[in-house]
Specification:
Oligomer: heterodimer
Strand content of chain B: under 5%
Structural class of chain B: mainly alpha
Radius of gyration of chain A: 23 Å
Largest sheet of chain B: 2 strands, antiparallel
Strand order of the largest sheet of chain B: 1-2
Largest interface: A-B, 33 and 27 residues
Distance between the termini of chain B: 14 Å
Shape of chain B: globular
């Protein structure tokens, strides 16, 4: 296995177990409406290298960017590895869903093709005609025939870019996080150490592959380590959350990564009949990551599934980001994650985390992994002592090489990456308080309010420039819901019901999220700052006091 | 055949859960009220019987799972996963028809 001790035996991702030629099960793909599909390592290798040949045959070579804009199936996985195997740079793009407008999806893809000089897009047969006019090669699995030979595995250099990670939204597309083979292997070695990964582990994941947690923890980690991966489509899991827990029971899952909302989703939305007949006793940990962690979400999950052999020792936490490949910290697997009780007033007014047994609860994200250093700094960039809140900065041997094709964006300041997250250290463990900038974290997705505001502002009937979007934390759901407040354009006749519907539809079709609250208000309802900008925080407070209880 | 039909009608008219008569109209209004209150979060919303709830962007697919739980708890009807899809549960008409199938 890849460990800190064996790290030097693996110069690139293509040297590890990923393309091994033997008959153990590599991936089991489960679905709510069909029998599970099992793929051995040998079959995986063949599918990957066939795809690699197809990609190479179509003019893609070493260092070219290949975008996988495909539904969440085994095909997208083979395409990703196929591109990497021939030395191209793959990147998973968010999936075209039923709710998204295909034309708007195409617009985003076009933007990416132009910005990042994409050589090829691999997509579904049904979507390929829509993007046939883009200036790059469009490939689908139907171009594969059984006679296609296996590609020769490229001999990559450790510092070559292995793949890109894009976050969602307009802003995310402009910043492809470029990761080298070396960085990814350093991350996997040190993270495997923090998790005490062994050959007995089985990873179960519903996570999207275009998200760092899904791509690294729920995909690359098991394939590189040669341990089985049980995978399902995120869309299938969202509608049928019991699928994940049944898969753990069926295949003896040991590790599973979940954003905070997923604990609430499964605690609330798995039917009694579905809860009756499975056990989670094989699990070593459910790892909460990628959203602020709420103790209440763990408790809700524990209350619902304690009869399925879950205990509080199963709840682990990690703090991670694409720019560090993935994990920055990890709590100890098999131990209860620490909970800090701090005085809320001092936290808000003095930015200090003073212990107060009656205070607010903050769940620890654990200590930094072996290869990552953490600093907490203030606005003047001075280091802060323990229990003082500041911006989290990190330095490691598994960081991004660059933002792809963006020489204008410098990710580091004197070797340190500023995360934009606010937090503090206590006894060497990291506690995250929130974000420095306005950002909504909805069901594990980073949503920039200004992206959604731009969509709402373009809806006829909304007073241009007079809308605001913010997040409202929902205890039952364990995540922020998206609220929209828009002033009505009084110069035209507006039917409020259809305007609300238009706003909801446009957001759904143009973004990865759905608005939960749409409120129309009269002119001059919104509060502006002295500089004339819509004051997001003040309007959020006003909305909460006027509308939230109704 | 005639017997089956009248038996079904009998069940439809008189089957009760608690004190609530489980006829089609009651089921429809119970689900409509639930969707408006819990899933659309807009009690003033006038939800039509044939309006696409998910395709119309009124709620996301998390709501499908939530609807599955509500239907099980409220009407003791279990809708298996392959039927709990956007295609099969997108309108109030589709949902009510599916629930009635198991109540009958």
């Amino acid at each position: 296995m890849l460990t800190l001790a064996t790290r030097n035996d693996y110069p690139t991702l293509l040297d590890a177990e990923s393309l091994a030629d033997y008959d153990a099960i590599a991936i089991t793909f489960v679905a709510s409406d069909q029998e599970a599909i099992q793929v051995t390592r040998r079959e995986f290798r063949q599918h990957v290298l066939r795809f690699g040949h197809l990609i190479a045959q179509n003019g893609v070579s070493d260092g070219d960017l290949v975008i996988i804009a495909h539904t969440h199936t085994l095909t997208s996985i083979y395409a990703f590895w196929g591109a990497m195997a021939i030395g191209a740079i793959p990147s998973m793009f968010p999936t075209l869903t039923e709710k998204l407008d295909p034309e708007i999806y195409k617009r985003d893809l076009t933007k990416l093709v132009t910005l990042s000089d994409v050589k090829s897009i691999i997509t579904d047969d049904s979507f390929a005609p829509t993007i046939a006019d883009l200036p790059c090669t469009i490939l689908t699995a139907s171009h594969l025939d059984t006679e296609i030979p296996l590609a020769q595995v490229h001999s990559a250099r450790p510092d070559s870019i292995a793949f890109l990670q894009h976050s969602s939204g307009t802003t995310g597309l402009q910043k492809g996080v470029a990761l080298s083979h070396r960085a990814v292997l350093n991350q996997l070695a040190s993270y495997s150490d923090a998790l005490a990964i062994s050959n007995d582990d089985i990873i179960v994941s519903w996570l999207p592959l275009y998200h760092d947690m899904g791509l690294i923890a729920g995909f690359l980690l098991p394939l590189i380590q040669g341990i089985p991966l049980v995978l399902m489509s995120p869309f299938d899991w969202v509608a049928h959350p019991a699928l994940l827990l049944r898969a753990i029971d069926d295949y003896g899952g040991t590790l599973c990564w979940l954003p905070n909302f997923a604990y609430n989703h499964m605690a609330r939305r798995i039917r009694k009949r579905d809860r009756a007949d499975f056990s989670l006793r094989t699990m070593r940990a459910f790892i909460n990551c990628s959203e602020p962690v709420h103790l209440g979400s763990h408790q809700a999950f524990l209350n619902t599934f304690s009869t399925n052999e879950i205990t509080e020792k199963h709840f682990a936490v990690s703090y991670a980001m694409a720019e560090n490949t993935f994990a920055v910290t990890q709590t100890v697997i098999g131990e209860v994650a620490k909970v800090d009780y701090v005085n809320q007033q001092k936290l808000e007014e003095l930015n200090t985390a003073e212990v107060d047994p009656q205070g607010v609860t903050i769940v620890s994200c654990g200590k930094a992994t072996h290869n990552t250093a953490i600093r907490i700094i203030n606005d003047e960039e001075n280091d802060l002592a323990e229990r003082h809140v500041g911006e989290v900065c990190i330095k490691s041997d598994c960081m991004l090489t660059e933002y792809y094709n963006r020489p204008d964006l410098e990710p580091f300041v004197a070797g340190w990456y500023r995360t934009g997250d606010m937090g503090y250290l206590a006894d060497g463990e990291l506690y995250i308080i929130g974000r420095k900038k306005d950002i909504i974290i909805n069901a594990g997705k980073n949503v920039y309010p200004q992206d959604i505001e731009a969509i709402v502002n373009a809806v006829d009937g909304v007073h241009r420039g007079r809308c605001v979007v913010f997040g409202v934390f929902d205890d039952r759901d364990g995540t922020e819901r998206i609220a929209v407040v828009a002033e009505i354009d009084n110069t035209i006749a507006v039917d409020e019901k259809s305007l609300k519907k238009q706003i909801r539809q446009q957001i759904a079709q143009q973004s990865t999220v759905t608005a939960s609250y749409v409120t129309l208000v009269d002119e001059r309802w919104l509060i502006k700052t002295s500089s004339g900008k819509i004051a997001r925080g003040a309007n959020r407070e006003k909305w909460l006091s006027e509308f939230a209880s109704s | 055949m005639a017997h089956t039909t009248s038996h079904k009608l009998y069940k439809m008219k008189f089957l009760t859960l608690g004190n609530k008569a489980l006829d089609k109209a009651t089921i429809r209004e119970t689900i409509r009220a639930y969707i408006i209150r819990e899933l659309i979060h807009d009690t003033g919303y006038d939800l039509m019987d044939d309006e696409g709830i998910i395709t119309g962007s009124l709620m996301d697919s998390f709501a499908l799972a939530e609807l599955g739980v509500f239907i099980e708890e409220e009407f003791d009807v279990y809708i298996p996963d392959p039927d709990l899809t956007v295609e099969k549960m997108d309108t109030l008409d589709l949902i009510v028809t599916r629930v009635m199938r198991d109540i009958n």
